[in-house]
């Protein structure tokens, strides 16, 4: 009975802005769509590996597809968006440039490690935007408690555990090191991007501009990708399967950012509440998808890491 009372007194309910309380179902819809679409990206990356799609080429094509998708959805050309010269335009360009690098490393993690580890590394990175929200934004509903700090420490340990693979003497040492380092880099970049998008949404965005921000971001990402291809790859061939992969990735990718901005606004940009809920959902959906569709196997250490990551998210949410 005492434990039940403690749970009731200490669990922090999701707090919506007063204007959104009547639209609870709509708020949940934006959150669920963000979870499903983000999980879809990890599944597509796995398909890239199975179909032997040139990942980097497909990622660059994907950003052009995002721009086209946004133009159709908003009935606005990207040139018109740029001509508006909104305050969020430069931050959008910076975000787009970092997107290319993060996306490629995320896809490489799926290929070199596995889909679940890539998802956990990317999503437990919520530690960064949660801490950023606590320090820089005055949006959190309650003060942090000891359980939240324990959750942050647990999440860091979880990242390490999910990154460890069984030793394989057949793999070159360089690849073994890469399989350990990649999830950690994805963790840092993924968390940094989430924090920066939350900052942009908090500081610059209006409901009217939210549909256009993804277009500017993805246009910058596409142009950055073209520049990187010209320097990184001397001879690039665009196979039809690479184009198909770019289309398959680009359509959900645009709406991932679109619904992310909508959902952040629904939660009043309270990262201490929003990101734990979002990332718990993504980890669970991605892990289930990896098991059902790809029969991915994890070591006991990886499984412990996944359970610890979920526990970390719960502790941060307390």
Provide a concise account of the structure shown.
With 318 residues, the chain is mostly helical. It has helices at residues 2-10, 24-50, 55-74, 78-83, 89-112, 115-123, 127-136, 146-163, 173-203, 213-232, 240-266, 271-294, 300-317.
Written overview of the protein:
The chain has helices at 2-10, 24-50, 55-74, 78-83, 89-112, 115-123, 127-136, 146-163, 173-203, 213-232, 240-266, 271-294, 300-317. The protein is mostly helical and 318 residues long.
Keywords:
318 residues, disordered N terminus
Head-to-tail CA distance between termini: 19 Å
Number of DSSP strands?
0
Tally of individual helices: 13
Percent of sequence in beta strands? under 5%
* Structure classification: mainly alpha
Overall spatial form:
globular
Helix and strand succession? HHHHHHHHHHHHH
Q: For the residues shown, what is the average pLDDT?
A: 78
Q: What summary fits the major beta sheet?
A: none
Radius of gyration over C-alpha positions, nearest whole angstrom: 20 Å
Helix content: over 70%
List the helices and strands and how they pair.
Elements: H1 2-10, H2 24-50, H3 55-74, H4 78-83, H5 89-112, H6 115-123, H7 127-136, H8 146-163, H9 173-203, H10 213-232, H11 240-266, H12 271-294, H13 300-317
Helix pairs in contact: 2-5, 2-11, 2-12, 3-5, 3-10, 3-11, 5-6, 5-9, 5-10, 6-9, 6-12, 7-9, 7-12, 8-9, 8-13, 10-11, 12-13
């Amino acid at each position: 009975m005492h434990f039940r009372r403690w749970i009731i007194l200490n669990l922090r309910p999701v707090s919506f802005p007063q204007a959104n309380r009547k639209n609870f179902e709509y708020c949940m819809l934006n959150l669920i769509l963000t979870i499903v679409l983000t999980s879809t990206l990890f599944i597509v990356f796995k398909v890239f590996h199975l179909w032997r799609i040139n990942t980097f080429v497909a990622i660059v094509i994907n950003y052009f597809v995002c721009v086209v998708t946004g133009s159709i959805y908003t009935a606005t050309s990207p040139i018109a968006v740029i001509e508006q010269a909104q305050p969020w335009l430069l931050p959008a360009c910076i975000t787009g440039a970092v997107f290319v690098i993060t996306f490629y490393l995320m896809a490489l993690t799926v290929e070199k490690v596995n889909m679940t580890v890539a998802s956990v590394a990317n999503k437990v990175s919520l530690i960064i935007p949660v801490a950023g929200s606590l320090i820089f934004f005055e949006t959190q509903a309650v003060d942090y408690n000891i359980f939240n700090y324990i959750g942050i420490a647990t999440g860091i340990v979880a990242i390490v555990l999910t990154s460890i693979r069984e030793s394989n003497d057949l793999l070159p040492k360089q690849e073994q090191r890469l399989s350990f380092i990649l999830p950690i880099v994805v963790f840092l970049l993924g968390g940094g991007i989430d924090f920066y998008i939350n900052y942009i949404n908090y500081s610059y965005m209006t409901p009217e501009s939210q549909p256009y921000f993804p277009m500017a971001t993805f246009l910058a990402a596409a142009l950055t990708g073209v520049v990187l291809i010209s320097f990184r790859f001397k001879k690039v061939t665009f196979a039809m399967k690479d184009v198909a992969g770019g289309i398959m990735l680009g359509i959900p990718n645009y709406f991932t950012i679109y619904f992310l901005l909508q959902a952040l606004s629904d939660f009043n940009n309270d990262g201490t509440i929003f990101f734990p809920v979002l990332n718990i959902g993504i980890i669970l959906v991605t892990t289930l998808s990896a098991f059902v569709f790809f029969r991915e196997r994890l070591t006991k250490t990886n499984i412990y890491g996944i359970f610890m990551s979920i526990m970390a998210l719960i502790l941060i949410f307390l």
